[in-house]
Write a structure and sequence with these properties.
With 379 residues, this protein is an alpha+beta fold. Among the domains are: 110 residues, Uncharacterised protein PF12988, DUF3872 (Immunoglobulin-like, Sandwich); 155 residues, Immunoglobulins (Immunoglobulin-like), CATH 2.60.40. Helix content is 15%, strand content 39%. The chain contains one helix and 25 strands. Strands 12, 13, 14, 17, 18, 20 and 23 form a seven-stranded antiparallel β-sheet that branches. Strand 17 and strand 18 form a beta hairpin. The protein is elongated, with a radius of gyration of 37 Å. About 17% of the residues have low confidence.
């Protein structure tokens, strides 16, 4: 007769191999699962690291004021030698420092003064710290033989921030008063009606500037041979001094003449944003009001020495509106066309991008054939 204890021993002996087999299988399953997870982690990890790095970089470099414009008001835009122009703007909400710089041009120099400093000669393409002031007075000296458009920049740097949080880019037209001449304005077709999906109207005004005065005749003093005079006794007659009479030059005024062997260079300059009143007069406001029709102006200036070919422009407006112009009249040397582009009311407040590009043939410098800027829409 088999005892119960013997049967239990037999059952236990039979179970041990099964338990060992299950343990081995479980271990193998764990190893396989671990290896699979490792492979998946290796596949996902680079992407996750890149994403985290991208997020961290975005957070670190995020600057909510990066695209903000400084609204600068100038009492005039044409600056003559020894005259002054005042630029002013509003204070920034954060503490920091304003800077000023301008682009280099031959025969042009600028001086700057604020309520705290006076810089009689500014180096071009160099940033000058202005402190927290909100107004500068500029004066210029020009020895150029033409009107010169000088680009300038005012930036605001928050304390301990190497990147400007707000910037203004503007243009000053500087002239040599010794070469000034009357400007003859020729107004072409006042308005051009366009389709509903594009701006309301576009106005082109061409201003023909008379170029330099030429000195027609300037008398040249004759050569004089001076011999030493021995004076033994001073007298009143020997003390007489003959004062030479000044020679007055005669000036001739001429309209621009195209040089057939010269070059064409059309330069685009943004002039400002504003509104047009009921009499179609453009008023610069620096701001656009929500749901109110606005307008902006830019100029196309032939700074070359040869009359241009016909040209066209493309204006990109807020709310994805685009206007393509017809062919415009060729511009003579130093002739300027002022374009006024009207656009319908913008429904949302904030900053909007606008731009304009011109297209022509045989232009020697296409880098100055466009402008890009932002406008501010308020309630």
């Amino acid at each position: 007769m088999v005892k119960m204890s013997d049967m239990e021993n037999v059952t236990t002996e039979k179970k041990q191999p099964i338990i060992k087999g299950l343990a081995v299988a479980g271990l193998l399953a764990i190893i396989i699962l671990t290896a699979w997870l490792a492979v998946q982690i290796v596949k996902v990890l680079p992407t996750a690291i890149d994403s985290l790095a991208s997020i961290a970089n975005s957070v670190y470099n995020h600057n909510p004021l990066q695209s903000k414009n400084i609204e600068v008001v100038a009492d005039k835009t044409l600056l003559k030698t020894n005259e002054a122009i005042t630029l002013s703007w509003q204070e920034q909400k954060k503490p920091g420092t304003f800077t000023f710089s301008y682009t280099c041009h031959d025969n042009i120099s600028l001086s700057l003064s604020t309520n705290q400093k006076n810089i009689p000669l500014l180096s071009c393409d160099k940033d000058y710290e202005l402190g927290s002031t909100t107004e500068v007075v500029l004066s210029a000296k020009s020895d150029a033989k033409d009107l010169i458009d000088v680009d300038y920049k005012i930036s605001f740097f928050r304390t301990n921030d190497p990147i400007p949080s707000a910037t203004h880019r503007g243009v000053l037209t500087i002239t040599n008063p010794n070469l000034d001449s009357p400007i003859v304005e020729i107004t072409e077709t006042p308005t051009t009606e366009v389709m509903v999906s594009v701006p309301t109207k576009v106005t082109t005004t061409t201003a023909e500037s008379t170029v330099a005065k030429e000195i027609a005749s300037v008398s040249t003093p004759e050569e004089v041979t001076t011999k030493p005079i021995v004076v033994t006794t001073p007298s009143k007659e020997s003390a007489k001094v003959t004062t030479p009479k000044p020679t007055i030059p005669t000036y001739i005024y001429k309209l621009p003449i195209s040089d057939p062997n010269g070059t064409i260079d059309l330069a685009v300059t943004f002039l400002g944003v504003g509104i047009k009143n009921r009499t179609d007069v453009f008023t610069k406001t620096n701001l656009v009001y929500q749901n109110v029709s606005g307008a902006f102006q830019f100029s196309v200036h032939n700074i070359g020495t040869k009359t241009s070919l016909p040209w066209t422009f493309k204006a990109n407006l807020a709310d994805d509106l685009t206007f393509n112009s017809s062919e415009q009249t060729p511009l003579k040397p130093n002739e300027r066309a002022v374009i006024t582009v009207e656009f319908p009311g913008i429904t949302k407040t904030g900053t909007k991008n606008i731009s304009a590009d011109i297209t022509t043939k045989t232009d020697k410098n296409i880098n100055n054939n466009q402008f890009r800027t932002t406008i501010t829409v308020i309630k």
